[in-house]
């Protein structure tokens, strides 16, 4: 294992909500990353966005880390949640909101 694995591991475990994405939360550079950003912003989450386009090692490393082939990737409390489709489905069903609350993370507009 390399230093990149350790770096990713520390980001994932050191932040409650981490989104590995193309671009930044302010300027997403792909539609899928943008959709996840919209959901996280809608829920009022404080999260860390990591731009995989800025570092080729992270871009490949996160795929190896999660064994998931695509970006974006959302992590909550150190646990891989999924990519755009999974996050969107969980959000629409209310499962994402419940999961966040179970992890002790406040969600805007939740009962």
Automatic annotation (TrEMBL):
Top-level taxonomic group: Bacteria
High-level lineage: Bacteria, Pseudomonadati, Pseudomonadota, Alphaproteobacteria, Hyphomicrobiales
Matching CDD domains: GRX_PICOT_like (cd03028)
TM region(s), chain numbering: none
Keywords: 2Fe-2S, Iron, Iron-sulfur, Metal-binding, Redox-active center
Claim: NADP is one of the keywords in the record: no
First and last residue of the signal peptide: none
Family under the similarity heading: Belongs to the glutaredoxin family. Monothiol subfamily.
SUPFAM superfamilies cross-referenced by the UniProt entry: Thioredoxin-like
Glutaredoxin domain ranges (all copies): 17-81
Keyword Metal-binding belongs to the record: yes
Stated name of the protein: Glutaredoxin
GO molecular function: 2 iron, 2 sulfur cluster binding; disulfide oxidoreductase activity; metal ion binding
Protein species of origin: Rhizobium straminoryzae
Binding positions ([2Fe-2S] cluster): 30
């Amino acid at each position: 294992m390399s230093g990149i694995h350790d770096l990713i591991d520390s980001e994932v475990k050191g932040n409650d909500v981490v989104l590995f994405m193309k671009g930044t939360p302010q300027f997403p550079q792909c539609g899928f990353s943008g959709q996840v950003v919209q959901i996280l912003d809608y829920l009022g989450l404080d999260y860390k966005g990591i731009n995989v386009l800025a570092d080729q090692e992270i871009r490949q490393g996160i795929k190896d880390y999660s064994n998931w082939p695509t970006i974006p990737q959302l992590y909550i409390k150190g646990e891989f949640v999924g990519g755009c489709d999974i996050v969107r489905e969980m959000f629409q069903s209310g499962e994402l909101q419940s999961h966040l609350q179970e992890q002790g993370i406040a969600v805007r507009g939740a009962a």
